[in-house]
Amino acid sequence: MSDKKRILIVDDDETVLQSLKRLLEVSGFEVLALSSARDILRSIKSFKPDIILPDMLMPNLGGLEICQMLNDDKEIQGIPIIMISALSGYADIEKAYKLGVVGYFTKPYDFSKLLQEINKVIASKEGKAI
After folding, report:
1. Phi and psi dihedrals of 46, rounded to 5?
2. Per-residue pLDDT, 45
């Protein structure tokens, strides 16, 4: 079994999805990339990610709805979420934080800062300081 940390990405923009997937894999993570959140609960339960990176705006089911679903499901509650979005308004960011996200990045984002935040969240989850 791999010791790699697992990241689930959900974004309907295939270019963003694949480039982020490649960058995270090169950085040492095991990554599951979904272009739709339709089967998100099943994917989370089978993949068991250490962190989830959803896009805020997607057809049918967006990042806020994903947060709410995680909050409502005792089996998967507590998985850290870092939201990635084109929305940069205070009200949108505030909604995400109220639903429990641990980080919020607006597109286009700086990958090195996102990677730093991912590592910080994972270390915090494991009770380690970085």
Report:
1. -85, -35
2. 92
Tokens of 65: 């709805």
Neighbours of 95 (CB within 10 A): 17
pLDDT tens profile 9-47: 999 999 999 999 999 999 999 999 999 888 888 999 999
Instruction: Supply 90's token pair.
Output: 């205070």
Runs of H (alpha helix) within the chain: 14-26, 40-47, 63-72, 90-98, 111-125
Q: Of 81, 39, 85, whose CA–CA distance to 58 is shortest? A: 85
pTM for this predicted structure: 0.92
CB atoms within 10 A of CB 108: 8
- The CATH number that domain 6-125 falls under is 3.40.50.2300
Domain boundaries, the chain: 6-125
